[in-house]
Write a structure and sequence with these properties.
Number of helices: 7
Helix content: 40-55%
Distance between the termini: 85 Å
Strand order of the largest sheet: 1-4-2-3
Shape: elongated
Structural class: alpha+beta
Radius of gyration: 22 Å
């Protein structure tokens, strides 16, 4: 590999250092998808209480870093900051005023782990899925038969 030229230094000074997958980094608060253990959307972070999946992930991965969306109100983020402090996980507030992302929280490593499912389902989605599994759906024929007899 050749030595950097003066033009390379000027380009870095003007445009910043070249990054791999800049769109992905903007979306995931400076991290890459392949490094993420768990992610929450902004609406999930705003919900009351803490997601137990995040709590368990913080317990299992103390060497990971918690990245929080700095564009959100501190009142929503404070519960996760306290949780990170409890499990001795370092955290960082990531603020980028130019880019809007729907991600509110990310627990990520500085190397790839390639976890298949990083998103947590919303609490109300979990409840509705549990209800539909518990109640067997009746067929059209059985409901007609019940009305006739």
């Amino acid at each position: 590999m050749s030595k950097p030229t003066i033009d390379d230094y000027l380009d870095n000074g003007i445009y910043g250092q070249k990054q791999t997958k800049p769109d992905e980094r903007r979306k995931f608060l400076g991290s890459l998808r392949e490094r993420i253990v768990i992610a929450l959307t902004q609406s999930q972070v705003r919900e009351k209480g803490v997601y137990k999946e995040v709590q368990e992930s913080l317990k299992k991965h103390p060497e990971a870093k918690l990245l929080l969306n700095g564009n959100m109100s501190y009142s929503f983020l404070s519960k996760y900051i306290k949780l990170a402090d409890t499990y001795h996980v370092s955290f960082s507030m990531v603020t980028n005023k130019e880019i809007e992302t729907d991600i509110g929280l990310v627990l990520a490593y500085d190397h790839a782990i390639d976890k298949e499912e990083i998103y947590v389902k919303k609490k109300n989605e979990k409840n509705s899925e549990a209800e539909t599994k518990q109640k067997p759906k009746k067929s059209l024929f059985s409901s007609i038969k019940k009305k006739l007899f």
